[in-house]
Specification:
With 565 residues, the protein is α+β, with helices and mostly antiparallel strands. Strands 4-12-11-10-9-5-6 form a 7-stranded mixed beta sheet, with helices on both faces. Strands 13-14-17-16 form a 4-stranded antiparallel beta sheet. Strands 18-25-20-23 form a 4-stranded antiparallel beta sheet.
């Protein structure tokens, strides 16, 4: 027990430590309570190998539904036809893209770390395993961006196969339209790593057209998206799928961590619901903090360009490692970084990020206070411990929940995992089919292929679906509400069965040809998904896993036919 208490005590101390501090590390996130709850669920017990509908181990039906929901959210937020969301980090996602595109000896254009590039885009990272020839991307120091004019000449000379955009110091959107034109002219694949700015892209305030121009988008799910760290690869060209999936398994993983996948789904749902307001506030906070730091005498870079259009601010300081240590004592977290003009092994930059403080609910007035704390330490040389207690620690008080999340608007109820299940209103046929058990083993593409044969019905008042003595010529799936099987042959009607959300009715008659002995009615206010009998049977022929489910289900009910059902 002593070891248990020690681990719990250290965990609690870390929680308090993070609550008290102003976190300006641009790679960090503030995961919501709902997302953390999914990671504590029994999803954590399951070993999950393979794709939805084709898992190595059984017991993954609801995990399949969760993953499909995550994929649908990714499609809605970021576009592109295909998405693989099983990677455990953004670096793994990058490896997935490299595995799908590169052959040994191919030429890659990417930004070195001193130009803001991530090390996974360079020889010191996993790119080296693919043995490419790496050429630095032409860079415009004055605009902290790609030098498009010089890029044209480099492409013609070097003949690259892949160009990597999206950086760790990502201040301004890339000129994607011009770069896309050059890529098309030179037959170059364009990869866009949106790891740092995914939450801002989801909110449509930073590079919302990335999916229009990129061949491949990779991303982690932390940082500005505020999920536990996972990874995803998005693309339109189906031919890349084999290489991307090969990187998931067997190359990099053997379990896709479904408890984290569910948490990613929560974060994506939050981005869909609150992302526009959140992303706008992030950028507003960045500009406010940058201006306030400039007013206090710090050398904030790119003021002539408005400092930044993202969550990141760059400050030039001759001894950034010392500054980071002083900030730590003052309760402020940030990191040192290289700047474009730094020599080899030198770093003269400080990188600040506003995505965490924004997620905690801070706005422009708090940016002034944060700038005051930073200025007190670096410009006025005040005691950092005193700065912590007088300015920084009070900022974090009463900011325990995540803003721009479901936690902020709908606090989690205690014991949520033991509470009776309560359904919610699904919007379309794809969503309904995606959470029905018969279709748990289907891929996203297979489910989307059923839309044309599915009709969503909203029942205003009680209606008879099947009359006694009539054949079942359709199958109904219950999205919400109640369907009843009723014996009305006697003086008093008897409800034989009551079917709720997730149930289906009519498959027995359609598959066996038996007529019904009892009426089937649907209560007013219910929502059903309707399939004609012939369409249902054609679907069973097309989808063998769905056919297997219904054959077993009908076999288990068949004896009831002789009892009048």
């Amino acid at each position: 027990m002593e070891q248990l208490h020690q681990i719990l005590n250290l965990t609690h101390r870390h929680n308090v430590y993070m609550q008290e501090r102003v976190d300006l590390i641009a790679a960090n996130s503030w995961v919501s309570e709902f997302a953390r709850l999914t990671m504590c669920s029994l999803l954590a017990n399951s070993y999950c190998i393979g794709l939805p509908g084709n898992r190595l181990y059984s017991g993954c039906a609801y995990i399949d539904m969760i993953e499909r929901e995550v994929v649908r959210l990714v499609h809605r937020l970021f576009g592109m036809k295909h998405a693989v969301v099983q990677f455990l980090s953004g670096m793994q996602a990058n490896i997935g893209a490299f595995n799908a595109i590169l052959e040994p000896g191919d030429t890659v254009l990417s930004a070195p770390t001193r130009l803001g590039g991530h090390y996974s885009h360079n020889a010191q990272g996993p790119l080296r395993f693919f043995a490419p020839r790496i050429v630095p991307i032409p860079f415009d120091n004055a605009r902290y961006n790609v030098d498009v004019e010089r890029l044209a000449g480099v492409m013609e000379k070097e003949r690259p196969k892949l160009l990597i955009l999206g950086w760790s110091e990502f201040l301004f959107p890339h000129p994607l339209a011009e770069i896309r034109e050059l890529c098309d002219r030179n037959e170059v694949r364009l990869m866009y790593d949106m790891s740092h700015v995914a939450g801002l892209i989801a909110g449509k305030v930073f590079q919302p057209d990335a999916s229009r121009y990129a061949d491949v988008i990779t991303s982690s799910t932390g940082k500005s998206l505020h999920a536990p760290d996972h990874g995803m690869v998005l693309f339109n060209d189906r031919s890349l799928m084999e290489g991307v999936l090969d990187a998931v398994m067997p190359l990099l993983t053997s379990n896709t961590h479904p408890h984290e996948m569910a948490a990613v789904g929560v974060a994506l749902a939050e981005a869909e619901q609150f992302g526009g307001r959140y992303a706008s506030q992030v950028v507003s906070n960045s500009k406010a903090l940058a201006a306030a730091l400039h007013e206090r005498g710090l050398k904030v870079l790119y003021g002539d360009l408005g400092y930044t259009e993202s969550h990141i601010i760059l400050v030039e300081f001759p001894a950034p490692d010392i500054a980071v240590s002083l900030f730590d004592r003052a309760g402020v977290m940030c990191n040192a970084c290289e700047l474009p003009w730094d020599r080899e092994g030198q770093a003269t930059g400080l990188r600040f990020g506003t995505q965490v403080v924004t997620r905690r609910g801070m706005k422009e007035p708090e940016m002034e206070r944060i700038a005051e704390a930073i200025g007190n330490v670096l410009v006025e040389y005040k005691n950092p411990d005193r700065v912590a207690y007088e300015i920084v620690y009070p900022l974090g008080e009463n900011l325990d929940r995540a803003a721009f999340s479901f936690d902020f608007h709908f606090p989690a109820e205690g014991g949520w995992y033991d509470a009776p299940y309560r359904g919610f209103q699904l919007k379309d046929a794809v969503e309904i089919l995606g959470v029905l058990l018969p279709f748990a083993n289907c891929t996203v593409e297979e489910i989307e292929g059923l839309v044309d044969i599915s009709r969503l019905l909203t029942v205003e008042r009680e209606v008879i679906l099947f009359e006694a003595g009539a054949p079942a010529d359709a199958v109904f799936f219950v999205s919400s509400g109640v369907v009843e099987v009723v014996d009305r042959s006697g003086e008093k009607e008897i409800v034989i069965a009551s079917l709720g959300e997730g149930s289906h009715v009519g498959e027995l008659g359609v598959m066996t040809g038996h007529t019904r002995s009892y009426d089937v009615r649907v209560k007013g206010g219910s929502r059903l998904l309707h399939m004609e009998g012939d369409d249902f049977k054609a679907m069973l022929q097309r989808l063998p896993r769905v056919r297997e489910y219904f054959e077993k289900y009908v076999a288990s009910l068949h004896h009831r036919v002789f009892e009048g059902w």
